[in-house]
Design goal:
The structure is a homodimer of 77-residue chains.
Chain A (H helix, E strand, L loop, with lengths): L8 E2 L1 H8 L3 H8 L3 H8 L7 H11 L3 H4 E2 L9
Antiparallel strand pairs in A: 1-2
Helix pairs in contact in A: 2-3
Chain A binds a DNA duplex (30 and 30 nucleotides) through α3.
DNA sequence: ACTTTTCGTAGTAGAGATACTACGTTTCGT
DNA sequence: ACGAAACGTAGTATCTCTACTACGAAAAGT
């Protein structure tokens, strides 16, 4: 129904920046189109659960580190 | 592309059994149709990331506790 | 035994996710 | 300054997810 807001926030761009890899590299590692990564980072839509699990796996972190129903805090505080 | 198998396994039915709640109760708490929970439990399809995050939140566990790209181990072993 | 709850199956309809192509813009290396 | 790489926008096509209705079967309550 989308009561509060069915938006999923993500830190893909941050994790990617942190590790210095391009969208194309990430997309290739995940086996998806490089534009798909762009759509995800811009929040145009959120990934399937399957993709989300593999993204977290790729970055070697828990799903909640990459995705959240609520906005992530900024780096300071 | 679905290289290996883009199937997502889940333990929704188990968690529900463990806590003694019905599909309808869970569905209501999540704000989804009660049939949707049935489809998920039977693996007819996997939830959106948004739903998956809220399911994990509802059961108060990490996403990886409920969902996995690989089959869960049985209780013994 | 009967009723109610729970679960499964089936079908339609609409929204969302992904692939893909093509072109424009910004950033980076040298 | 130039070319290349990275990023953004736009559009179409296809598949998946979710809602919803209706009906049947199994389990549980009384």
């Amino acid at each position: 129904m989308g009561e509060t807001s069915d938006v999923v926030h993500n830190r893909i761009a941050m994790l990617r920046a942190e590790r210095g890899i391009s969208r194309r590299e990430l997309a290739e590692a995940l086996g998806v189109h490089y534009q798909t990564v762009g759509y995800l980072e811009r929040g145009e839509y959120s990934p399937s659960l399957y993709l989300a699990l593999r993204i977290a796996e790729y970055f070697d972190v828990a799903v909640e580190v990459v995705f959240s129903t609520r906005p992530f805090k900024r780096l300071g505080e």
